[in-house]
Structure formats: C-alpha cells, structure tokens
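Possible regression after last week's pipeline update?

I re-ran a chain I had predicted before the update to compare outputs. Posting the input and the new output here so someone can diff against the archived version. Not blocking, just want to make sure nothing changed silently.
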Amino acid sequence: MPARWFAQADPGLLARRGLACVLVLGAMAGVMLLGWDQPVREVLGRFGKSGFGYAWGVSAYWMGLGGVQLAAAAAFIALAIWARSFRWRAIGINCLWAVAVSGIMVQLIKHLVGRARPRTGLAANMLVGLTMNSDMHSFPSGHASTSFALAAWLSSRCPHYTVVFYGLAVFISLGRIISGSHYASDVLGGMALGLMVGWALDFRRRTKEVSA
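New output (post-update):
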C-alpha cells in the first residue's frame, strides 16, 4: 500500500528526487521567462550544421525514438525470458511502461499546448493550443521524456550504471536542440516529466516489496 511504503520510505531519497524535479521545472520556467530559448537554439544550431553536429542530431533522433526504445525493451524482455531471469524480465517490462506512459503523456501535452518548433521560424513563445500539426508539437520533447524515464527507472535498479543511463539521456536531449527540433525549455519539460514517470515506477516497485 502506498501509505505504508511512504511511512517506511527513505526521506532523503524522496527529498532528493523532489528537489531534482523542482530544479528542472525551475530551470525550464527560467529559460522561458528570460527568453533564452532562441539564443541557445542559435548557438547549438550553428554547431548542428557541422558534420559532427549533424551526426549527433541524427543519432539522437533514432536512439530516442519511442518505437526504437519499445523494440529494444521488448528484445530485452525476450532475452530475459530465454535466460529465465525473473529480475531482468521485470526490469524490461517496466522499461516498456516507462516509455509507454511518458510517451502517451507527452503526446497529450504536445497536442494541447501547440508550441511552434524552432524549424518553423515562428516565435519561440508562440502557442496555438489544440492542434494536430506536428510542426506545432515542440513542447515538451518526447525524446527527452522517454529517455529520462528510462534513465530514472534503470538507475534505480542498476545504480552502478547511473552515469551511463543519464549520460545517454542528456546526449539524446541535446541532440534534439542541435537538430532544430526543440528548444531548451522543451527538453527540460520532457526531462521533468520523464523523471517523474521513471521514479513513480520505482516507487511502485518499492510499494509492492513492502506489501509482499
């Protein structure tokens, strides 16, 4: 039961995760209010025109694509079943949940907010509301959301590889700015959403373990 788990939860862990979400959301709000989205986009956009920058953007696109991440999680589950590892199968199943839940949530927000992507040339603060036009689906970044959801969940189960998981999530997120698909605040918004989803899955696991 959630109430029972929270009564026994590590207050330090809850505080650290809560603070991390607040800081990311604060950074997102700061970037928007200070008008830093366009300057950051211009700087990274110039880098994106180089050969290395272009390769980074393309790699980030494919690595952070929801369908690719779901396929990788499914293959991981199949391998765990073949190896008869219940622990790794459970980790893989929750990877599917991390991508699916964060992906669905981010799509709902994208369609409701309707923020213009950088490549459209429209103002960074332009919001049109409900729309089905993909060029107006900049906020938040789906790649950042699913990648950070995976990083948060996997780091909770394999803490020795935390730097690797979050490093890949940052690589993918920066690549979306470099390629001109998102603003910095889009990425920070997706990051916050992803962290909350990944940590929620970890809280759910801990709750089950306490209730068992």
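Follow-up from reviewer: compared with the archived run. The radius of gyration is 18 Å. Marking as no regression found.
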